[in-house]
Amino acid sequence: MRIPDYPSRDSDKWSQVDAWFSEKLAPEDADLKYALANNTEQGLPTHDVSALQGKMLAIFIQMSRAVRVLEIGTLGGYSTIWMARALPPHGSITTIEFSEHHAEVASQNINKAGLAERVTLHRGAALDVLPTLHAPFDLIFIDADKVNNPHYLDWAIKLSKQGTVIVGDNTVRGGSVIDPSSEDLNVKGLREFVDMISEDERLEATAVQTVGEKGWDGFVMAIVKARL
């Protein structure tokens, strides 16, 4: 069982509810289970999305009829697999991972899932890779270091079109995101990220808090209304 990133006295109950919904609505097959097991065996941190969150991203892709997806922060490729499977036959996902070791494990997991032809994995700093990519993407998932979230948002907008969906993960952080005095650089990055979204007339956005096996966290979701 995953140790929650932001636990509380109700964490066990949240995890039980997550497990029940996952069994009913987002069951993991052998390839998804292999990815998580391989990540653990290879020493990767347990920062993957949950099964329910992976299924949510997959549904976002289907709802928005996305064909080209960009993921900033691959880790071990668990979320990549969920999203790649949701794409139409001609769809593709471009994913970026800073850690060479994490990228190698992700490559193993993606290959095991039979998705290598659908996924392009870039190794290196996202801010070096993003300027080399060709716009537009239909959905952009931001799930890397939160310090650089403001820069990732800038690039997400540059690589978008009207109707592009932008999703940012880990945006609640146990409630610390509302603390203006926090010295945590990740919190500072997230607060600037949210401020930028709230002030950008090109974006329409909302936030959703989540509780579950990962503890108390959440997502910010935006849609690009127009390119000004």
**Shape call:** globular
Portion of residues in beta strands equals 15-25%
Per DSSP, the total helix count is: 8
Mean pLDDT: 96
- What is the rounded distance between the termini? 46 Å
Class per helix and strand makeup: alpha/beta
The helix/strand order is: HHHEHEHEHEHEHEE
Unreliable segments of 5+ consecutive residues: none
Describe the largest sheet. 7 strands, mixed
Strands side by side in the biggest sheet: 3-2-1-4-5-7-6
Q: Assign a percent range to the helix content.
A: 40-55%
What tags apply to this protein structure?
seven-stranded mixed β-sheet, 8 helices, alpha/beta, globular, 228 residues
Commentary on this structure:
The chain has 228 residues and is α/β, with parallel strands linked by helices. The chain has helices at 11-25, 30-41, 51-64, 78-86, 100-112, 126-129, 149-158, 185-199; strands at residues 68-72, 92-97, 119-123, 139-142, 165-169, 203-212, 215-224. A 7-stranded mixed beta sheet has the order 3-2-1-4-5-7-6, sandwiched between helices. The radius of gyration is 17 Å and the shape is globular. The termini are far apart.
